[in-house]
Every structure is written in C-alpha cells, then in structure tokens.
Amino acid sequence: MNKEDLIEFEEECCHETDVTKLLAEKSAWVRKETLRIHKTCREIRIASCLSDIEIFTVLYYGKILNIRPNDPLWGGRDRFIVSKAHGAVSLYPVLADFGFFDRRELERVCMENSIFGSIPDCRIPGFETINGSLGHGLGVACGIALALKRSGKNANILVLMGDGELNEGSVWEAIMFAAHHRLDNLLLIIDKNEKSMLDYCKNAIDLEPLDEKFKAFNWKTEIVDGHNVRELYYTLKKLKEDRDGQPKVLIANTVKGKGVPRLEADPLCHIKSLEPHEIDEIIGGLDNGCRS
Asked: Which of 40, 120, 272, 283 is in the most buried spot, having the most CB atoms within 10 Å?
C-alpha cells in the first residue's frame, strides 16, 4: 500500500468509527426519549416503536435521506413513508432534534390540542402521508416513485413496513408493480421483528424464505441486523445509490420491544404497555450503560 492509499484508508477508518459512534449514541438517546413519551402517552404501541429506532437513526443522522428540515416540502427531497405508522412515535425525537418542530412538543404527545398522536399524520412536519391503515404505504410510494421518474427528478422514495403488513394482498400488488415499472428510485425497508398484533407472524402466514420471494419478483434484496447501525448505514447507503432498473428491499432483522426484556420475550408485546416505574428503571439502566 503506497502512502496515498494508506492516508485514504486511515481517513475511511476514522470516518467509519465516528459515524458508528454517533449512530450508536443517537440510537440510545432516541430509545430513552421514546420511553419518556410512553410514560405520558400510554396508548402508543411501545414495542413496535422500539424495534425500528436504529433504522430511523441511520436514515437521518447517517444522512441517507436528502432532506431540508427548514423546508419540509422541498421539491428535491427524498420522500420517506412510514407505513407501519403505529411504530413511528420513535421518529418524533429524531424530527425534533433535526428542527422540524420545537423539541418541547415531545412533552405534549397525545395531549389535548396537540397534533402529535399515537399514530402520526402529515400535519406533522416531516411526515409525508397518513398510514394508520396498514398495507397502503408501498402502493402510495410506487405512485410517487413513478411520478418522480417520469418528471425527471432524481429524488428517491423510501418506505418502512412491518413484516406483519406483508400479509396484505395490496403489498404484493405493489411489489409486482414496482418491478414491472423498474422503479429503482424506490427502497423498501422491512422491520422484520417476527411478531404481529396477536402472535408470531409465521403462525398467521409463514412467508419464509422472505428474501427469495422478493428476488423472485426481481427486487434487489439485502438482509442485515436491524439493530447494527454499521450494517444498516453501509447497506442503506449502497442500496440507495444503486440505479440498475430494480426496486430494492432491505430486510432488517429486529427484536420487537428491543431493550425491554419483558416485551422482547412476549409474543403479545404489540398490545402491552409499560408502567411508569418500569420505564424509569429501563431508562436508568440505559443511562448506566452509556456511562460504563
């Protein structure tokens, strides 16, 4: 390795270390903030909100998304649709941190006259669509992706779905549509935590091997550990840059209720809430972990 190559290699290593450290720190902060919101907003689906935190963190703090927080409707932005909207309260702290809205709004989630509910909608700066009814986000994204391509815009559209949503027939119609129209500006992320509302996903409809199904529909397919920020960062970055005529899917293997053992072990955690004293103990444990 010559001197120039060595300098480049060292710069890449330093960058990788800095990015990974930042993403890990921000993920821990978002997890604590999400738990704090749950303390005053008991109705949020906390287990679903805990499984996708690293995904949100990498998309925003890793600068995967091309956005302008001071101009949320900027025409050249990447669009991000959170189809599993019940798991999107954990995006509130991220958007507040980026300046989409005042961070004091995090104290008013689910309160009277607040626009911040347990299911987000597009009144909130930074949210593109309303997705309380599952299975629609990918179809909407396909329409936007096609419109962007036909108008000559280089923006991307990213979608986050839960694996339970894949039981909806409309999702597979959208998957076929995207492949037929070669929507290579479309990137689907699946929060594959293996649990839906009332049981493990495989006991409702077993879709394994999931990656092979997407490949059969001519989607470029990758699988990562959905809580490993380094894997998420580099894989998302690579997939977003690919423009070879195929829509893209990242299957992120996650744990529902991540960080809360009682929820992680419970097949019914989707509909479970935490008591205030539990939340305090969990946040205390996370704080101790950060200091160790």
From this structure: 120
